[in-house]
Amino acid sequence: MNSAIFEEIYSSWKNNFDDGTGYSFFAKKFGYETSEGIRSAFRRWRKKRGLRREENIIEKKETGKPVVGVVDIETLPAEVYVFQLYDQNISISQIITDVCLLSWAGKYLNESETFSDILTSKEAPKKDEKRIVESCWKFLNTCDVIIGHNWSGFDGRILNTLFLQYGFPPLKYVTVDTLSCARHNFKFSSNKLDFINKKLGIRNKLTNEGFILWKHCHEGDQKSLDSMMEYNIGDIFSTEELFYRLRPYIRNFNVALYNEIEENQCPVCGSVDLKVEGFYYTSAGKWESVRCQECQCISRKKNNLFTTEKKKSLLINS
Hints:
The protein has eleven helices and ten strands. The protein has helices at 3-13, 23-30, 35-49, 123-126, 130-140, 151-166, 178-185, 193-200, 211-218, 222-246, 308-313; strands at 68-76, 79-80, 95-97, 100-108, 114-118, 145-148, 174-177, 274-282, 285-292, 298-300. It is an alpha+beta fold.
C-alpha cells in the first residue's frame, strides 16, 4: 500500500464508508486478492500514523490516577517578505502567511499506543489546519496532566492561540515542562531535548533532513509528511524517557490528589514505599523529610513538628 491508496481509503473509512465503498470495493480497485488483505494493510498504516475514528479516541475516565499525556507538536513556519537575510525587523505588513500547526503526536504515560494527526498533502500547501487543531484539542481534553519539552514556552501557547482562533474552549490540565525542570535544576550546556537525552544516555530524537523536510511538507509531498509524522511520534517517546529521569525533581503536581488513598504517597509516582530521611526546616517550622524508595523523589510531610509555643518563639530575620 502506498500513501495515495491509504489516503483514499482513509477518507472513506473515517466516515464509516457512507459513500458506498468498502474493503471489497477497494480490494478490487487496487488489485488486492481479498478484502482482508487490504484491510490488514490499511490497519498497519493506521497504526503507524496513530489514526482512528473520532469515536474511538479514549474518553476521560475516573481511574483513581491522573490521566497523563505526553505530547509534542510540529509547525510550519511563517512566510514573509524580506529585503536581506540578516538584521531583520519584520513588520506585520511583511507577513504572507502565519505559523501553522503541521502535526501533533501524543501518548498516555506508560502506554505504547500513540495518537497523532498531520496535515494531508492537500491541506499542507493551503495551511488548512483546523481539522488537526480539533483532533489535538480532543486528545488534550482527556488529560489531567500534559508532559512536554518547552510546552509552557512554545507548544502549549501555540495550541492555545489556535484553540482561541478556531473557537475551541479552554482546557484545564497541569503542565509538566521538562525544559523548565532542566533549566531550573541543572546547568546543561544546551537544554535542547536531543542534547540532554544524549548527555543522559537515554532515547534520543530521530534525525531528519533539517529545514528542507519542513519545506517539502509545506509543498504537500507525501513522503515528507510521512517522515514528519514518524519524527513527531519519536519525540514523545524521547520526552517520556526524559520525564522519568527528571521525575524526582518535578514539583508542580501531586498524584495523591487523584485517589482516595489516605496513607502517605510519593507526590510524583504515587508509591507508598517511603522512608523518613531527616527533617526539613523553613522559617516557619520543622517537618519530616521523606524519600520515595521507587523514584527517589524527596518530599515532606504536612504536619509541623514545632509546638505552638516554639512557633511563637521564632523571630523573623528582617
